[in-house]
Write a structure and sequence with these properties.
This protein is of the alpha/beta class. About 30% of the residues lie in helices and about 10% in strands. It is built from ten helices and eleven strands. The chain starts with about 50 loop residues before the first helix and ends with a helix.
């Protein structure tokens, strides 16, 4: 059984109000649950100034190249509020892999998923889109796939015994329905966490179809740094969290699979109630990285998942001593630098260099020879000429002896 590795505390945007943290067991949990609280005193037109991640990632420069138009990011989460003013027009029809639990309009529906979608593709609202949340790739499309329940959903107990393959099924569905990037701001980093073959296979299926897969590294930094899945599956871009100073967040899991870091502390997020909140978690970091991947994919759709992963790693800023460590991976993502570096790349497939199953055993038979008149006429003519020449010499020498 999987259980939550995260907590919820409540914080308003302007002031932090301590409330009892809430934890809950889920079949799949939010590896980066956000700190949420009513923000009745906050105004939408004051939100943009508090989005420190926009400046930290040099997005003004990146947006001169692209804002993500033409790219679809699948958000596998608790659902997405398509009518939120910061997302309206960017959200595609949703797929529900759960089939029960809270529904649209309920308080325990789509809060986490909407927050992630806003970080990835929020476009703001109001005059000049100056109010509300601006995402990393504000012109990208969001494909919501509901694969988990909110912490407070009364049906979460049922989720432990039903739809156990929702995540694996959701990954495959997203890969088959136009996703260019899959964001997995979720995971299991409990003591009993272990790899699920169906999930691993689904991730590899998506990668082979050219889909970039991003996941949160986990929020177990102060609880033993347990390995989190799906972050640890091969090929996944695992995101760790840092604060506005580039320092690793204390909760962010430190593990070998860490690829890059991104903002995960004091992140301003959108909510289905059309208010704004301040959150923390590697969930937010994953969403920032997915947005960056969407920008690269929009400008260079020919690049494969492995290339985009390496691009984000190679162009990351403030790399740790030695180039990489388990706390921040290769450093904080820099979408503008990644876009510049992508100009110098050639597309490569994710196909392995080996032959694969087709040639197991003795290998392929040598191709059978096929002949045409052109194949034998020339050599035959040359051979005949040589025989006649030798015969002529022999006859000439014999004639000389007789004389």
């Amino acid at each position: 059984m999987r259980r939550s590795s995260t907590r919820r505390s409540r914080q308003s945007i302007r002031g932090r109000h301590r409330v009892e943290p809430v934890g809950a067991a889920l079949s799949l949990l939010l590896a980066g649950t956000l700190a949420l609280a009513p923000a009745a005193t906050a105004h939408a037109d004051g939100i943009r100034a508090q989005q420190w991640g926009l400046d930290a990632l040099h997005l003004d420069e990146a947006w001169r190249t692209t804002k993500g138009r033409g790219v679809t990011v699948a958000v596998l989460d608790t659902g997405v509020e398509a009518d939120h003013p910061d997302l309206v027009g960017n959200v595609l029809p949703a797929k529900d892999m759960i089939g029960f639990g809270a529904g649209q309009g309920d308080r325990d529906w789509a809060r986490h998923g909407t927050a992630m979608a806003g970080i990835i593709a929020g476009h703001g609202h109001g005059p000049g889109d100056s109010a509300g949340v601006m995402g990393v790739a504000p012109e990208a499309r969001i494909l919501p796939v509901r694969v988990i329940l909110e912490d407070g959903d009364p049906a979460r107990a049922k989720a432990r015994t039903s739809r156990g393959n929702a995540l694996a099924d959701g990954i495959r569905w997203a890969a088959d329905h136009g996703a260019d990037v899959i964001n997995l701001s979720l995971g299991d980093d409990s003591n009993s966490a272990h790899p699920e073959p169906s999930e691993d296979e689904a991730v590899q299926y998506a990668l082979k179809k050219g889909v970039v897969v991003v996941a949160s590294a986990g929020n177990g930094g102060d609880k033993g740094d347990h390995v989190s899945y799906p972050a640890a599956y091969p090929g996944v871009i695992a995101a760790t969290a840092v604060d506005r100073y580039g320092t690793r967040a204390s909760f962010s899991t430190r593990r070998w699979y860490a690829a890059v870091s991104a903002p995960g502390v004091d992140v301003v997020i959108a909510d289905p109630d059309h208010k704004y909140y301040e959150g923390w978690g590697t969930s937010a970091a994953s969403a920032f990285v997915s947005g960056a991947a969407a920008l690269v994919k929009a400008a260079h759709p020919e690049l494969g998942p492995a290339q985009i992963k390496k691009l984000l790693e190679d162009t990351a800023r403030d790399a740790p001593v030695g180039g990489r460590d388990d706390s921040r991976g290769f450093g904080m993502i820099d979408p503008a630098a990644a876009l510049r570096a992508a100009e110098r790349l050639r597309p490569q497939s994710l196909r392995a260099a080996s032959y694969g199953k087709k040639y197991f055993g003795e290998g392929p038979d040598a191709p059978r020879a096929t002949y045409s008149t052109a194949d034998w006429a020339g050599p035959l003519a040359g051979g005949t000429g040589g025989v006649l020449l030798v015969a002529g010499v022999v006859l000439w020498r014999g004639r000389r002896r007789r004389v």
